[in-house]
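Researcher: I'm comparing several assemblies side by side, and this is the next one on my list. It has 227 residues spread over two chains. Same procedure as the others: predict the full complex and return the structure.
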Amino acid sequence: GENVEQHPSTLSVQEGDSAVIKCTYSDSASNYFPWYKQELGKGPQLIIDIRSNVGEKKDQRIAVTLNKTAKHFSLHITETQPEDSAVYFCAATGDSNYQLIWGAGTKLIIKP
Amino acid sequence: SAVISQKPSRDICQRGTSLTIQCQVDSQVTMMFWYRQQPGQSLTLIATANQGSEATYESGFVIDKFPISRPNLTFSTLTVSNLSPEDSSIYLCSVGYAPGTDTQYFGPGTRLTVL
């Protein structure tokens, strides 16, 4: 079955700098890759997603890139702000149409 | 996206009792899911809640421990039965809007502590 690895587990960056979180997946049949942001005490919030027919997608300060050959996808956050501090999860579709396989999460800390 | 609410937001329960968690969506959705998130961990899918039929459980989760109901397209409940301290987790409801869609949106979660 699908396996998703996420790195790093913790990322600390200076405010204003960029942050990159990387995930690798094992199943070449996976075709949907969402990213979620989870703030303390809240449910995960979908922030961006990408499908396998697209290599890159941007939404203001957030972008996701996908390398199908290498089976990895990355979240890029530019000009980081204190409100970006949270845990970020990547996921990839599993064996069924609706199943998501989740990464372990990355705690992003923005230093003032 | 729709507004998803969960009740209760948190609870403290005694060992051996049960807790029922409600998930309410303000518009009809096709798919509803229940997840468990243990402290500091990632999300684990418990089951898919099917309207009008038995839920589909993932490996390691059984109906006797996690009975699920879904009477209509906007509401579902998850019961965690015969509670033990190992059940202390956040329980999350998520929804998907259309058949074949893989995008999921999450409720705020229910934080359960078992003493």
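Model: For your comparison table: Chain A touches chain B through 20 residues (CB under 8 Å).
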